[in-house]
Write a structure and sequence with these properties.
The protein has 462 residues and is mostly helical.
């Protein structure tokens, strides 16, 4: 009798704790949504946003947008899924993008969370780590998450890829059979096409991970389900559509490389190693420390299987860039997402029965959160100042154009507002060359002859 009473009390306590965690968990999601929404709102249109928008404005229908993307597929790049998403957003209000991009950000974090094993239900600690890692360690956050063109290429691509992997993982757990396979088979095929058609190296990592999961299932159960076959067929099909685009060959002609032959391959390998060091050293260090602690706690290798698998996919996704001559930094964004899942998994794998380990995990997360809050407030203030100056510039250009002045001089952004969450200074107008591609893009978008820029202290309204 006493045992039953004790069990009931324990059950009630656990249910109360779970309810409490659930409230905090969904509150954290809501806070995260508004945090990224604010940054999206105060990120102005820049460079390619204006250039693409100029083209999109020439379309009279959705079919015209498809035709524009078909032209780009044939002449420049095969990332049609991402660019169609971009064209759709550029044809509407920036507010639509701001809201949808914030939702995509939250969805990606939830897909990452889903792929962490061994966590509690409504694990606030795990989700908080994911948010902190992305905000602080995501490669080129200002370009890959906030800049409209970059976000559609990298954030949305990674979100779709993680969504596909999450659906595949869910189906593997449920092991659908018989007629129940129809919906997963169709869903994985369609989502797989999109996931494979997103980003060259990240989609490649996605295919590798999907093959490992399906291969593991086949090894264990000696059978394969219909939805596994369609899921793999979809992602491979999408990947082939992307890499076989005629525009890729045309684009390669504009890429220059210092070396050729074997030296070029060695040079690319070295650049990848240095990029991994520059972008991911802290995350790799966290993963190593977590793994060492798990091993010292005498846990079996199976405990670290998911962590090591995502770490392997991270490495493969990074070094896939050896196949290209000069990858931009943001190309490592998707690889970083895989690494963050590995890091969070490693931290969750560390048993916190020891009070000191538990205190270290909680206090580190608390200090990290406090640091981020201060960074967020300071950078947010700078974003608002940049947003104000860019809007003032746009308004001035429109005023001058209406007055008949088609050769316009505008001020550069004031120095001092630079921060890690804005790419405005890296993509600003040139003060030395009015023929600089950004200046030309501005002039084309506003339909004027030329736009020049001077430091603000030298600028006076004409």
């Amino acid at each position: 009798m006493k045992e039953r009473i004790a069990e009931r009390k324990l059950f009630n306590i656990n249910m109360a704790e779970e309810k409490h965690r659930k409230i905090i968990f969904f509150s954290l999601i809501a806070i995260s949504f508004f945090a990224i929404l604010i940054y999206n709102v105060f990120t102005p249109a820049m460079t390619d946003d204006l250039i693409y928008k100029k083209t999109v404005q020439e379309a009279n229908s959705f079919l015209d947008l498809i035709r524009q993307e078909q032209t780009q597929y044939m002449t420049w790049t095969g990332r049609s899924v991402n660019h169609m998403i971009l064209r759709c957003f550029l044809s509407g209000s920036k507010w639509i993008f701001n809201i949808c991009n914030s939702i995509a950000f939250i969805l990606m974090t939830l897909f990452m969370y889903y792929n962490v094993e061994g966590k509690k239900k409504y694990d606030v600690f795990a989700y908080l780590l994911i948010q902190l890692f992305i905000w602080n360690f995501a490669v080129s956050f200002e370009q890959t998450v906030l800049w409209e063109t970059g976000a559609c290429n990298y954030l949305w691509g990674s979100m779709i890829i993680m969504g596909y992997l999450s659906l595949l993982r869910y189906c593997l757990k449920e092991d659908f059979s018989g007629s129940a396979q129809i919906a997963p088979a169709v869903g994985l095929f369609l989502l797989g096409i999109m996931a494979g058609w997103c980003n060259e190296n990240t989609s490649g990592g996605c295919i590798l991970l999907a093959c490992i999961w399906v291969g593991g299932y086949l090894w264990q159960h000696k059978r394969i389900r219909v939805w596994m076959a369609t899921g793999l067929a979809g992602v491979v099909t999408g990947f082939l559509f992307m890499i076989l685009a005629p525009g890729n060959a045309n684009r390669m002609q504009f890429m220059e490389e210092e070396h050729d032959g074997l030296l070029a391959l060695v040079s690319r390998w070295l650049k990848c190693c240095l990029a991994i060091r520059n972008h991911f050293f802290i995350l790799i260090a966290i993963a190593i420390v977590a793994f060492v602690i798990v091993r010292l706690q005498r846990n079996g290798w199976k405990k670290s299987k998911n962590m090591l698998l995502f770490f392997f996919i991270f490495i493969a996704t990074c070094f896939a860039l050896v196949l290209t001559s000069e990858p931009v930094a943001r190309a490592y964004f998707g690889a970083g997402i895989f690494l963050m899942v590995s890091c969070v998994q490693g931290i969750i794998d560390v048993a916190d029965k020891d009070m000191y380990i538990k205190a270290l995990k909680i206090s580190s997360a608390a200090v990290f959160t406090l640091f981020f809050i201060f960074t967020y407030m300071e950078s947010g203030a700078h974003l608002m100042r940049i947003y104000r100056e860019v809007n003032e510039r746009f308004s001035y250009i429109e005023e001058q154009k209406a007055a008949g002045n088609l050769d316009i001089t505008v001020p550069l952004l004031r120095p001092g507002f630079e921060n890690k969450y804005s790419d405005a200074y890296n993509s600003d107008l040139s003060a030395e060359d009015s023929g600089y591609w950004v200046n030309v893009g501005y002039a084309s978008y506003f339909e004027v002859n030329s736009i020049s820029a001077v430091p603000r202290e030298e600028w006076t309204e004409q």
